[in-house]
Amino acid sequence: MDRRPLPIGRGDNLLRDLSVHADNIRRYALRMGEVQGQGYIGQALGIADVLAVAYCHALKLRPSEPEWEGRDRFLLSHGHYGIAFYAALIEAGIIPEKELETYGCDGSRLPMSGMASYTPGMEISGGSLGQGLVIAVGMALGLRQKNNPAFVYNSMSDGELDEGSTWEAAMSAAHHGLSNLIALVDVNRQQADGTSVNILGFEPLHEKFAAFGWFVQRVDGNDLSAVLAAFDAAREHAEPRPRVIIFDTKMGKGVPFLEEREKNHFIRVDADEWQKAIAVLDAKGAVQ
Amino acid sequence: MNVNVSTGKPRLTTSAMIASIAEAGQRTKAAPFGHALCKVAEERADIVGMTADLSKYTDLHIFAQAHPERFFQMGMAEQLLMGAAGGMAKEGFVPFATTYAVFASRRAYDFIHQVIAEEHLDVKIACALPGLTTGYGPSHQATEDIAIMRGIPGMTIVDPCDAHEIEQIVPAIAAHKGPVYMRLLRGQVPLVLDEYDYVFELGKAKLIRDGRDVLIVSSGLMTMRALEVAKAMAGGDADVAVLHVPTIKPLDERTIVREASRGGRLVVVAENHTVVGGLGEAVAGALLRAGQAPKFRQVALPDAFLAAGALPTLHDRYGISTTAMVASLKAWLA
Fold first, then answer.
1. What is the CATH number of the domain that holds B143?
2. Which of A17, B134, B136, B227 is most deeply buried (CB count within 10 A of its CB)?
3. Which residue of A has its CA nearest to B75?
4. Which residues of chain A are within 8 Å of residue B93 when distances are taken between CB atoms?
């Protein structure tokens, strides 16, 4: 089965199952963070719901055949989100769970910043921020040229909105009417030097993308039903325009003591807190 | 003709966008890159053309007219051009992406480095106005493009001499797997090497003519100059050999070292590029690594921001015109 690779539920159960997938992604990310004693765990917890919907519902993919020609392409422009992305790949069955123990270690297929040649299912070498969307434009043009109906998803951070190339791509995608391109922007309002709004203001973001000619949705990125509806609407939208979903997310989501922690590009996590965080998720799962 | 009113002499003008390096009376061929690409594209459906608002000034408009469905106008956005060319290559196409050498090498460098080269993607970057081929000043003079591109692992760099070579290089780099940076001569491009029965081979330096006193190692349009220098000095000044090195990376070190260490000749590396990081330093490094230290000189542009003006004036001033080279060689041989 090409879409929905995992045995998840239908109808009423879909949201509940996606919630389980999202928390599994959080657990895997926390375990990887523990391996290195650090990592972009705040971002990973924040975007886990989006990745769960992407990898356990929206994307067409074959877990055993990551380079299948018919797959939807998912570009990780913000390479430092590798920790979250690998967790999603594990949850989708593309890489084995055991491999998370190698995260960031010598010889691992899971380097701290995502690179195409290292990891199955990793489409690009991101990390030089602002490059994913221009690559996505080229891939979307290429797919259209060969009549391949796959979508290109470009996952990016709000910090990447600072880069001029992002807006070159935004203008180009609309100019070429790339309806097979879906940009996913994680607005967690945190950049390396502080709060995004104080670094380089990008609001009003909905209006900006709309003015560039995109079909825009802005949703709470930690509200699974909203995320699910936005993905479905982005795919099904009829107009020949590129699509963007702006996700307002909360760093550390799902682990209250990390949600409340002072916000930084790197959230501080003490050595004993990785397991504590996993225990919080386990307790939540037990209640469900 | 544009004439200076006060002197009555032809006025030398700053030809920029319409630049042709051909001299009056020289045999030329029109838009060899565009026509060669069309020819390859007729045989290969995976070839596409992309540009950043410079199709007319890179001869890609010939391809755009012949294959409009395979031509992608990306606008004046070089980062997008290179990133999207990478994306297109990831989907199985072989893009020829064109702009000016300054914009590819300086503005889009990280996109070439990370998107294209790091994944060894099949993108051919063809750039007009390489080195000093416009009088517009530093904004358009790509005097350091080779130095910049040489730093990228796995990047193949070619610097063709004339139309005859461009016609052969285009199918060769289309067949080559991996990223290529090509210095492009456009418009009415001189025809020189056909007289020497020259055949281009990717990665190979070729001895175009032999000589006892001097070996000029050159690439691009400087090989044309070197051959003119050799003719000019043949009357008794010096017997000049010319080794043409159209592939700057990977460098044919074996042939270069063999020729440079033969017969105790003065070795002169001639390049349309700054003295920093181009063919001259590449050859010097190869010779030293091989334990060879012939008498060595460089004909190259100075490490400076160059002036604006008419191209012949600038080539004279910076020592890469035939006249200036003959003077340099005579001084070195004296």
1. 3.40.50.970
2. B134
3. A172
4. 142, 145
Token pair, residue A247, equals: 């996700």
Q: What are phi and psi of A28, to 5 degrees?
A: -60, -40
Q: What are the sequence ranges of the domains in chain A? A: 12-287
pLDDT averaged over every residue in chain B: 96
Fold classification of A12-287 is Rossmann fold (3.40.50)
Q: Do B59 and B120 reside in the same domain of the chain?
A: yes
- 3-state class (DSSP) for residue A68: coil
Judgement on whether residues B223 and B168 belong to the same structural domain of the protein:
no
**Cα B76 to Cα A247: distance, rounded to the nearest angstrom:** 30
The residues on A that touch B, with CB distances below 8 Å, are 115-117, 123-125, 127-128, 130-131, 133-143, 145-146, 148, 164-165, 168-169, 171-172, 175
Q: What is the CATH number of the domain that holds B326?
A: 3.40.50.920
Confidence at A5, pLDDT banded by 50, 70, 90: very low
Bridge partners of residue B180, in order along the sequence: B124, B156
Per DSSP (E only), the strands in B56-141 are 71-73, 94-100, 124-128
Q: Among all chains, which residue has been given the structure tokens 């020729």?
A: B259
Average pLDDT over residues B31-50: 98
CA dist B33 and B47 (Å) reads: 14
Domain that holds residue B277: 203-333
Name the token pair of A76: 């990780």
Give the pLDDT confidence of B132-178 residue by residue, as tens digits.
999 999 999 999 999 999 999 999 999 999 999 999 999 999 999 99
Contacts of B97 in chain A (CB under 8 A): none
